[in-house]
Amino acid sequence: MRRRRVICSLRNGLARIHRYPAGMIDLARKKPNPIPAIHPLPEYLARGPRKAVYEDTKAVLQVPWMGVVTMAFSHYPTFYDCLWSGVRPLCQNRAFLEACKGLRTFTEQQVANFDLNGLRGALGTRGFAEQECADIGDVIEVFAVGNFPYLLIATIARLLLQDGTLSGVPTVVAANIEERGGAAVQRLVLMERHHADAQTIEVYDDIQTTLGLPFVNTDYRALARWPSYFALAWADLKSVIVTPDYEPRVESVHQEAVKLVHSLPNLGGLDTAKLKAAALNDAPDGEVEAVVQLFQWLLPGLVTNVACFQQQLDGSTSQSRV
What we know:
The chain has about 325 residues and is mainly alpha-helical. It has one domain (about 5-320). It is built from 13 helices and two strands. The protein has a two-stranded antiparallel ribbon. Helix 3 packs antiparallel against helix 11 (about 270-280), helix 4 packs across helix 6 and helix 6 crosses helix 10. The longest helix has about 30 residues, at about 130-160.
């Protein structure tokens, strides 16, 4: 029998044991210090080859937005070309789709017992029509589906930069586009800081302070399109983030992502040496790795928070919609 590595994290005050096959690299969830500068180029400013890679990334992942994570990675073009050419065939494969679905289910299980308020009644008293609530739910669903490919890609990048490998059994079964879900919204409308009123700017500042980040992710800017809803949703979510139970559950999501990535096949011939060389071609030693680590650290929390937004709005999980 193969030896198994045991990694423990706290869950509900008890030790939860992650058993991984021997040979797996333990990617500890660690926020880089200092936080590296990131240089994401907004989609509306992208031109030429940068625009082309944005559109290709969105088309393959079947998402209506280029995540801040991949925009930040694409600032290093040699690195991103190497990474994307390697993960592109994997992202079109059923193994990747099933990993995304499994990680979503796992994440929703982690937040099921959080003490979150249902917001439908409060929104109704503020004049929100049922269709408006449904529109908010559609945007949440986009992120509830689309964030997981980005999380797995960031985890793959970090794994390779730290000398790990993808070791799953190759398969040629492609995933059907209609199976991916999250396609109800074709274009996201973002409430950028320079568009926002004073209350929303205060919420953005609070998000950055609470999460310890120098930017506000796309998810929050998309949901802030409905400012009165988003102020309620963030205040309720923040009350959970500050509890002792929150961080262990985010850690569990991180560990599950690491476990799933180790099981994926290397369909694109990703090579650690080539990826490291590509990173060094674009930046001083350690710069790209710090950016990768930042996003691989924050994305488990982001997917957890989106699952909380979903629970606030309708109290259901993806399992009930399948």
